[in-house]
Automatic annotation (TrEMBL):
<dbReference type="Pfam" id="PF02224">
    <property type="entry name" value="Cytidylate_kin"/>
</dbReference>
<dbReference type="InterPro" id="IPR003136">
    <property type="entry name" value="Cytidylate_kin"/>
</dbReference>
<dbReference type="GO" id="GO:0016301">
    <property type="term" value="F:kinase activity"/>
</dbReference>
<keyword id="KW-0067">ATP-binding</keyword>
<feature type="binding site">
    <location>
        <begin position="22"/>
        <end position="30"/>
    </location>
    <ligand>
        <name>ATP</name>
    </ligand>
</feature>
<feature type="domain" description="Cytidylate kinase">
    <location>
        <begin position="18"/>
        <end position="225"/>
    </location>
</feature>
<keyword id="KW-0418">Kinase</keyword>
<dbReference type="InterPro" id="IPR011994">
    <property type="entry name" value="Cytidylate_kinase_dom"/>
</dbReference>
<keyword id="KW-0963">Cytoplasm</keyword>
<keyword id="KW-0547">Nucleotide-binding</keyword>
<dbReference type="InterPro" id="IPR027417">
    <property type="entry name" value="P-loop_NTPase"/>
</dbReference>
<protein>
    <recommendedName>
        <fullName>Cytidylate kinase</fullName>
        <ecNumber>2.7.4.25</ecNumber>
    </recommendedName>
</protein>
<comment type="similarity">
    <text>Belongs to the cytidylate kinase family. Type 1 subfamily.</text>
</comment>
<keyword id="KW-0808">Transferase</keyword>
Length: 232
C-alpha cells in the first residue's frame, strides 16, 4: 500500500529516483503507486511515516506539543510496509493512519526538525535497484535532491477537498466537506510555512496540475517525462 520494506532488495545509492512532491490530497500516493508499477520499481509513501509517528504519539498519550517525544517515537517505529497492509508492532494500522485526526497531527509533527531528522535515513534506505518512486513534501528538495526527475503535483484546494471527501466516504468514514476544506487550507499553510523543509517545488522540478486531469493522464505524463529525461 505505501512502500516495500527497505530490508528487501539490494541497497543502491546509484538507483534512479522519481520524486513526487505536493500538497495533501493532490494524488501523490496514487500516482506514485501507478508509476512504480509501470516501471517495476519500489515505492515510498513518506507521508505514511509521519502519520505512523503521529499515531504513535497519540497512543503514547501525547497531544502533539512535545517534539522530543515525537522524535523518540519516530526513531523507534516498528514498521513494515506490505502490498496490502501497513504494520506497526505487527498490527495493521493502514486504515487508522488515514483518519483526519492522525493526518492533522502528522502535519504538525512533520514541522519539527528533530522528527524529520529521525526519519531521514529511514526514507533514504528505500532507495535501491531497479529504482524508486518517492512521494511526499520534501522528497526532491531534501531527501533525494539528486533525483533525475522531480515532479511537483498540485491541484486546486477545492478539488483536493472533494477528492478527500470521496475517499473518506468510500472507506466508510464520516466526513464534512467544509471542515475538510478548512483542514486542507490549514495543512497547506503549515506545510508551506514551516521553517524546516517546507513544501516547495524543487528548482528543477516539473509542476503538474492534476485539477482537471484523470489519474491515467497524469501517470502517462510522468512516464513520458521519465522516458524523455530520466534514463539519460
Amino acid at each position: 500500500m505505501a512502500a516495500d520494506h527497505p530490508g528487501n532488495g539490494t541497497p543502491a545509492q546509484a538507483a534512479p529516483v522519481i520524486t513526487i512532491d505536493g500538497p495533501t490530497a493532490s494524488g501523490k500516493g496514487t500516482i506514485a503507486q501507478r508509476v512504480a508499477q509501470a516501471l517495476g520499481w519500489h515505492v515510498l509513501d513518506s507521508g505514511a511515516l509521519y502519520r505512523l509517528t503521529a499515531l504513535a504519539v497519540l497512543r503514547d498519550g501525547g497531544d502533539g506539543t512535545d517534539e522530543a517525544q515525537a522524535a523518540r517515537l519516530a526513531r523507534r517505529l516498528d514498521v513494515r510496509f506490505q502490498p496490502d497492509a501497513i504494520l506497526m508492532g505487527g498490527e495493521d494500522v493502514g486504515a487508522l493512519i488515514r483518519q483526519e485526526e492522525v493526518g492533522n497531527l502528522a502535519s504538525r509533527v512533520a514541522a519539527w526538525p528533530a522528527v524529520r531528522e529521525a526519519l531521514l535515513a529511514r526514507q533514504r534506505d528505500f532507495r535501491r535497484t531497479p529504482g524508486l518512486v518517492a512521494d511526499g513534501r520534501d522528497m526532491g528538495t531534501v531527501v533525494f535532491p539528486d533525483a533525475p526527475l522531480k515532479i511537483f503535483l498540485d491541484a486546486d484546494v477545492g478539488v483536493r477537498a472533494q477528492r478527500r471527501y470521496k475517499q473518506l466516504k468510500d472507506k466508510g468514514f464520516s466526513a464534512n466537506l467544509d471542515d475538510l476544506l478548512q483542514d486542507l487550507r490549514a495543512r497547506d499553510a503549515r506545510d508551506r510555512g514551516r521553517a524546516h523543509a517546507p513544501l516547495v517545488a524543487a528548482a528543477d522540478a516539473v509542476t503538474v496540475d492534476s485539477s482537471h486531469q484523470g489519474i491515467d493522464d497524469v501517470v502517462r505524463q510522468v512516464l513520458d517525462l521519465w522516458s524523455a529525461h530520466g534514463p539519460a
